[in-house]
Specification:
The protein is built from 8 helices and 27 strands. It is an alpha+beta fold. A 16-stranded antiparallel sheet has the order 10-11-12-13-14-15-16-17-18-19-20-23-24-25-26-27. The chain has a 3-stranded mixed sheet with strand order 1-3-2, covered by helices on one side. The protein has a 3-stranded mixed sheet with strand order 4-6-5, with no helix packed on it. A hairpin with a 4-residue loop joins strand 19 and strand 20. The termini are far apart.
Length: 636
């Protein structure tokens, strides 16, 4: 037995030694063609290898040469070259390796002589299918590229399936190649088949009432099937905050009339409490802190509650807000909403004797405290068959505002004991109550990620407050904003935004004595929480955050607009150039719009787009440059 084991060990060692000594490697180099043909040829020829212990004798070299030629010819055919000239050069690279050089000449291409492309079936008028038809990559006179042919066929099936034509196929698909004349005749007939409809939705759960879940669907039973609506359905289930590990299973009944897709939804209940804290910095807000607590399911009725607190270094602003939401028992998605909160911030009252943005004098400094309660109803309206959604909220909002300012040393000395005017004294310390009735719409549609993020986002609100129902002051406001991101080319993105707001509110004339002269100012009677301010990352770059307004205390009206071009130059990086214009003001006849221009750098990270901008405010003295830093998409 010991002798037998010894002989086995010796034989094994000799075998391993012989492999190490005798094995030779082969390295391939392909020239004469470019990508993607280059990669395909390389993949084909390198698929042929010699054995791990073989040496390249003359017979193996001839075999390797023949295999490389046949592989190269086969690799060129999908790109329309059936008669390439292949030259193989094989030479030793070193003692244990060979270098095989594959030199290629394409030869004459096979050209498409005739193309018969036809759409049939109930879905032949489908817009996306007809766009595919118009943009078909092959046409008479072009080189026969079978890669494009196969890709086009796959794209047709994908878009038809996405639109509910789940039995689509090709009733005829033929490529006839004349290798002597180097021509090809193509025939492709697309048969869409019938369109499937959405069937019954079954929820496998006992967590929340069925009517709450039913309202989340953007479709009804019998509506045309579309894969996008199913994807949105999954997303809406997740956004509800009730569930995790969501699984939507399709049960395709294609033999039914019409074909039907039933859905079975399974999920696990989400943890009822969630907590989130963030620490950040931005050139607009400086340092900032936020904490959020959410209670996702208070009862089977689907009601939820959350509370958030935040602080920012800019203006030493502190805010607290609590929200409650209760789904209504309606076919469409609707909620009763209630919220309450407070906000306190420090502000300065600035005046300019010459109405000059570069020459402002701080005459008072103080605190503004806002306390509010809000109640109303939110309805989610489906647009374009549910492909987009509009959020509509009707509400009543009570606001208590307390203003407490103290004069600074910049006031004239004689004003230290006697107020400059009764209106100025009233302005420094005041309390107001308002009850506003309003409606607002929010229409976000955002697609893609990173540089490819595109879409639009519109917001519109209108509200009014009147002494007739208990307010201390009468005012009304209308506001509209729009943002658009779209790709002009694969590497160039255009970003546009604009906003306009109007307030019908009384103005207070304030006479302020400062060193050397008295300044007469017009200050809006609008509560601070509803005043407009411009300037900063998402407004007019080149100016400080919310620095564009009347006297640093906000204005009745606002108008801003921006145009930006962004060029994607490397992986997650892009550069941008922009022009911004706008201001917040009390008088539409004197908007005094400010101009800012600049350039920026974008880095698309896992936490969002990091945006660094350098902008010049053309209406500031010396036209200084200002740095702006922000994170996130501009569409939000």
């Amino acid at each position: 037995m010991p002798l037998k084991r010894f002989l086995q060990s010796v034989i094994t060692s000799l075998a391993l030694f012989s492999v190490g000594v005798c094995a030779e490697t082969v390295e391939y180099v392909v020239s004469g063609v470019d990508e993607p043909m280059l990669g395909n040829v390389r993949d084909h020829v390198t698929a042929f290898r010699i054995g791990s212990s073989a040496r390249l004798n003359a017979r193996l070299r001839r075999k390797l040469t023949e295999d490389a030629i046949n592989a190269a010819v086969a690799a060129m055919r999908p790109y329309g070259y059936f008669h390439p000239v292949v030259d193989i050069d094989m030479a030793p690279k070193d003692a244990e390796a060979w270098l095989v050089t594959v030199n290629l000449k394409k030869g004459p291409p096979v050209l498409v002589q005739e193309l018969h492309l036809e759409l049939t079936g109930p879905g032949k008028e489908l817009a996306t299918l007809n766009t595919w038809y118009e943009e078909f990559p092959l046409a008479p006179g072009l080189v026969l590229n079978q890669q494009d042919w196969d890709k086009a066929k796959l794209n047709a099936m994908d878009l038809l399936e996405a639109s509910g034509y789940l039995q689509a196929g090709f009733s005829d698909h033929v490529i006839r190649v004349d290798t002597v004349a180097n021509t090809a005749r193509l025939k492709l007939v697309v048969d869409t088949g019938p369109q499937a409809v959405m069937g019954k939705v079954t929820f496998k759960q006992d967590i929340v009432n069925e009517d709450v879940l039913a309202s989340l669907r953007r479709f009804k039973e019998g509506d045309a099937y579309h894969a996008f609506l199913l994807e949105k359905f999954r997303l809406d289930l997740w956004r509800s905050g009730y569930f995790e590990d969501i699984e939507v299973v399709e049960r395709r009944e294609l033999t039914a009339e019409p074909p039907r897709v039933d859905l079975e939804v399974k999920f696990k209940p989400r943890k009822k409490n969630s907590f989130q804290g963030t620490l950040g910095f931005g050139t607009d807000t400086l340092a900032r802190l936020q904490f959020f607590w959410g209670r996702h399911l208070l009862s089977p009725r689907g009601d939820d509650f959350d509370i958030g607190i935040g602080w920012q270094q800019k203006d030493n602003l502190l805010s607290l807000q609590a929200n409650y939401r209760l789904p209504r028992k309606t076919e469409s998605q609707q909620f009763w909403i209630a919220s309450g909160g407070l906000q306190t911030e420090q502000q300065t009252f600035e005046v300019s004797p010459s109405n000059d943005l570069n020459n402002r004098v701080n005459v008072a400094r103080g605190t503004i405290n806002d306390y509010w309660l809000k109640a109303g109803k939110t309805r989610v309206r489906n647009i374009r068959r549910g492909f987009e959604q509009l959020f509509e909220t009707v509400y009543v909002k009570y606001l208590n505002e307390q203003r407490n300012f103290q004069p600074t040393d910049n006031l004239a000395p004689e004003s230290s004991d006697i107020p400059p005017s009764e209106s100025f004294f009233d302005f420094l310390k005041d309390t107001s109550n308002s009850l506003a009735i309003g409606i607002e719409w929010d229409w976000p549609e955002i697609r893609g990620n990173g540089f490819q993020t595109i879409g639009h986002h519109e917001r519109l609100w209108a509200f009014t407050s009147n002494e007739a129902w208990g307010s201390d002051i009468d005012f009304s406001q209308v506001y509209l904003s729009t943002r658009w991101n779209f790709l002009a080319t694969d590497r160039l993105k255009i970003l546009l935004r604009a906003e306009a707001g109007y307030s019908n509110a009384s103005n207070i004339t304030v006479n302020v004595p400062i060193e050397g002269s008295d300044v007469s100012l017009v200050v809006t009677d609008l509560p601070n929480l509803y005043r407009f301010k411009a300037g900063g990352n998402q407004s007019v770059r080149g100016y400080g955050f919310k620095n564009l307004d009347n006297n640093g205390l906000g204005s009745n009206n606002i108008f801003t607009a921006s145009a930006e071009a962004e060029y994607h130059f490397h992986e997650n990086w892009s550069v941008a150039a922009f022009v911004d214009v706008g201001n917040a003001f009390n008088d539409w006849s004197k908007p005094d719009l400010k101009l800012g221009t600049g350039f920026g750098l974008r880095w698309y990270s896992v936490i969002g787009a990091l945006r660094v901008d350098v902008a010049k405010g053309w209406d500031l003295e010396g036209e200084p440059w200002r740095l702006h830093l922000s994170i996130g998409t501009t569409l939000l």
